[in-house]
């Protein structure tokens, strides 16, 4: 019988994703619970000789590594399977820490590295054998402890792309306009003055694929590995769902979202305005009475549920009020062959 504390949704998900029956899930969870308690006890009692623990494939047996063969009976007495190894967990962790330090000091071609208690080693995964070995050499670690494997694995942070959120170009900050895709590649649109083609972004991690400023003020950033959502950050952090991009009429209410001043609203005053910035003229902008401030650039303008554009610039501020201009989103989608992410 399942532990009453285990939500049925967890059991259902384990059945689905591990290919198990309900009975197998219940048995596995019970074994895992017992193993966790045993591992905690043995970690403390084995002390410096402890080499790590792991469950076998079906979680029916806890394997416990030790560098001291004399500890085997004590391990067996706890219902675990002893494995005598050459290195302690502390030694392996020390090697991994050296790799961390080397990677922090310079670029590395390795994708990831970790302590693998099942092989009593530290594993480095990299696109090439040479790249993995270079990291080990830079760290000055014992080659006998490290195993390098060639892998196509290229980890990326899984981060939701939400309109109005901050992103960074070096030390500069702008705001996400709207989530988009081009083919299977997720990303977002923003203001062109935020970065040039090839500029790198963080939070989310991406690259400017195209940018136009002045003349226009739009750009798009490809952010592979991130989740392009149909949302804009609204009042109080609530999420507003984008349903489409039909242009609203002059006089219609409109709100904008940005990483400096959050959610601010006003009305549309004119379409197709030309604005003279110090860097040059930008044409085809929509003028609104919604305020904005530096850092809000690129952020979302939305009317009801319809995406309108990305924040370009303006005058005034959100203390005294102001006028703000946005670059219409449909022009950006057309220019780069993008698809707006809608709910």
Describe this structure in words.
- The chain is an alpha+beta fold.
- Helices cover 23% and strands 40% of the residues.
- It is built from six helices and 23 strands.
- A six-stranded antiparallel β-sheet has the order 12-13-14-11-10-23, with helices on one face. A six-stranded antiparallel β-barrel has the order 17-18-19-22-21-20. Strands 1-2-3 form a three-stranded mixed β-sheet.
- Helix 1 (8-18) packs across helix 2 and helix 4 crosses helix 5.
- The relative contact order is 0.10.
- The model has no long low-confidence stretch (mean pLDDT 93).
Write out the strand line-up for the largest beta sheet, numbering strands in chain order.
12-13-14-11-10-23
SSE succession: HHEEHEHEEHEEEEEEEEEEEEEEEEEHE
Number of strands: 23
Shape: elongated
The profile of the biggest β sheet is: 6 strands, antiparallel
Q: What's the alpha carbon Rg, rounded to whole Å?
A: 27 Å
Q: Given the structure, what is the number of helices? A: 6
Low-confidence stretches: none
Structural class: alpha+beta
Distance between the termini: 40 Å
Strand content: 35-45%
> Roughly what percent helix?
10-25%
What's the mean pLDDT score?
93
At a glance:
With 343 residues, the chain is an alpha+beta fold. The protein has six helices and 23 strands. A hairpin with a 6-residue loop joins β1 (50-55) and β2.
Which features characterize this protein?
six-stranded antiparallel beta sheet; six-stranded antiparallel barrel; about 350 residues; alpha+beta
């Amino acid at each position: 019988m399942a532990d009453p504390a285990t939500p049925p949704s967890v059991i259902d998900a384990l059945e689905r994703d591990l290919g198990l029956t309900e009975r197998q899930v219940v048995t596995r969870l019970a074994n895992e619970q017992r193993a966790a308690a045993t591992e905690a006890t043995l970690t403390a009692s084995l002390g410096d000789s402890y080499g790590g623990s792991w469950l076998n494939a079906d979680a029916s047996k806890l394997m416990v590594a030790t560098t001291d063969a004399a500890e085997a009976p004590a391990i067996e007495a706890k219902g675990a399977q002893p494995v005598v190894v050459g290195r302690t967990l502390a030694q392996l962790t020390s090697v991994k820490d050296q790799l961390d330090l080397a990677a922090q000091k310079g670029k590395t071609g390795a994708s990831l590295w970790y302590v693998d208690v099942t092989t009593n080693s530290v594993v480095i995964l990299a696109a090439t054998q040479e790249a993995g070995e270079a990291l080990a050499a830079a760290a000055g670690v014992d080659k006998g402890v490290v195993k390098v494997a060639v892998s196509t694995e290229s980890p990326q942070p899984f981060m939701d792309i939400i309109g109005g959120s901050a992103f960074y170009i070096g030390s500069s900050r702008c705001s996400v306009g709207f989530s988009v895709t081009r083919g299977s590649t997720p990303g977002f649109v923003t203001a062109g003055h935020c970065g040039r083609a090839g500029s790198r972004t963080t939070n989310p991690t991406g690259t400017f694929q195209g940018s136009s400023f002045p003349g226009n003020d739009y750009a798009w950033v490809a952010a592979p590995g991130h989740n392009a959502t149909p949302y804009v950050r609204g009042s109080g952090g609530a999420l507003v769902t984008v349903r489409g991009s039909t242009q609203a009429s002059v006089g219609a209410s409109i709100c904008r979202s940005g990483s400096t001043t959050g959610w601010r609203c006003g009305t549309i005053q004119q379409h197709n305005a030309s604005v003279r910035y110090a860097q040059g003229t930008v044409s085809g902008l929509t003028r609104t009475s919604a305020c904005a401030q530096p850092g809000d650039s690129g952020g979302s303008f939305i009317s009801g549920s319809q995406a309108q554009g990305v924040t370009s610039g303006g005058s005034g501020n959100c203390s005294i009020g102001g006028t703000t201009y946005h670059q219409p989103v449909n022009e950006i989608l057309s220019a780069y062959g993008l698809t707006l992410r809608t709910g």
